[in-house]
Amino acid sequence: MKVNKWTILACVAVAIVSIIVLLILEKYMPNTNGCSIIQNILLGLFTGAIISCVTTIVGYIYAKQVLIEKASNNIKSLYINMVVHSKRIGNVLEKIYSTTSLEYLPFSDISGLSQLNINFLNNMELGLFSPIQKNSKLAEVYIKLIEFQPVVYNIKNISMDLETMVLQYTYQSLQIQNMQLKGEQPNPIDLQNLDAFKNLINIRTAKLHEHTTDRMMQLDRIAKEFFDCKVEKQSWEEIKSELLLQVESIVTQ
Description:
This protein has 253 residues and is mainly α. Helix content is 82%, strand content 0%. It has six helices and no strands. The model has no long low-confidence stretch (mean pLDDT 84).
């Protein structure tokens, strides 16, 4: 789109300059020797610029539509994934205190879902979108989507850190279990530290759940603005209701 946009502007500039020079020659240098040759050259430039401009505009519109369609599909996928992500974290949060073995909880799934958020956002190819009217509503939506990128990377980092903490907890827990199997008495301080570490994991999981849910609601608002901007306007609420049905089928599997 960027190449098409600058080509359009260049063609328009050439066409304007050509027609202005043609009018000046026609007014102040009519029937002058050599003037007709220059006029023919300028007329050729003007005609070529107009044809190139029209062709490029068609290409620009097509490229824009392709990018918008990519964004449309991936916003839906991103929304589904973020809702599933939030629900999975919530389900894990409910089970942390009632289980003694955190390795059986799907923290790796939580980390994997956070990576999918990044994939869906990258698939939109936001950097290729280059509107001619930079203050349009659609351009503002794209800016919000670009600003949303650090959000999903942050969620990914937190999810990975949480998975690492669970692995560390599991390792320490297994060490204590091995001592007990050998008939050795674990150090009470080690048991207290392990319990404190589990409590920290619980707190971090709760914060991740809150953060992910808040960002999911932020994406909800961006998606509504996006679909309101499309030429063939679609109701985001109707789209969302269908996406939530897909979410339910995923989380119940």
